[in-house]
User: What shape does this take?
Amino acid sequence: MTKSNYSVGDPQAEQMIQDLVNFCDNPAVADLIRETLTTVVKMGLEHKDRGDFKLTSNTLKELRHACRVFLPYRNKRKVVIFGSARTPESDPSYQMALETAQALVEKGHMVITGAGGGVMEAANRGAGRENSFGINIRLPKEQRANLHIEGDSKLMQFKYFFTRKLIFIKESVATILFPGGFGTLDEGFENLTLFQTGKCMPRPIILVEPKNGTYWESLIRLLEEELLSRGYISSIDMNLFHISHSVEDAIQHLEDYYRYYHSLRYVNGTTVLRFTKALSPAVVSYLNHEYRDILREGDFQTSEALESEKAQNEFPDLPRLVFKFNKQHFGRLNEMILWINRNLV
Assistant: This one.
């Protein structure tokens, strides 16, 4: 057997791995199954630290289970809602989260929460079981799932925060944050960091609280007075999020984001933005004038699906905008996506 670039290096082991690949009978991802099995065998040959193996095993099991749960719903857009588990039903944020989830469902979306109480309970309650997911975390003091997702097949239990947060991002197209504690801020800053560094696809990140609330304004002051003024972040990073003080504005911002924008894909150094409506020459001309600062080289150009996209049957009929993105100015990229959505007629 010819040794691949990534292999165990033992003919007998390679044959057993190949036998398991054949047993799975999944040609579309046979190479990835082989790599995964090779990783496990290589790890087994390298050392005997049981803790490392428990971490690896639990991580893989959690990810496999979550992917299996979400797989039947991949054709529906899902929005993750974060907020304090301690928010009482009498708090205006509770009612606002409930109404936001109801409005999302009316627009055809499903809702994902951390399955706990407070804002999470309100969101699952507003969305209803049929349109809810819960991604619970096992804690030393157990966090019981709220009554509106408890016992549902779309409730998942996670041991690790990092796998849980990965699934939150992976399975959703937008993030809505209500006021909360360390956990809410952790999720919010992770969303912002992943977007800022290009480690997640563009998405609306909406900071929501009732009218006259001060929670997010106080945080923005901190960002401006301490982070921005010291150069720890740039002014364009402030374009990564949107503040809303009403359910209507939050939903409108989300709907505006996906009015024409569909998805992003990187193909051999080219950034591909897919839209549900073709961009006019006037729009492309404007982009080449106003957003040239995000280009590494060349111009913005319209395009049909690229060959690698056609090979994977990735939305071949959608019109494209292709360009050489510098992969630095994601705040500007976000601004550009919003501008296109608002100016295509």
In short: The chain has a mean pLDDT of 96. Residues 11-71 form one domain. The longest helix spans residues 50-70. The chain has twelve helices and eleven strands.
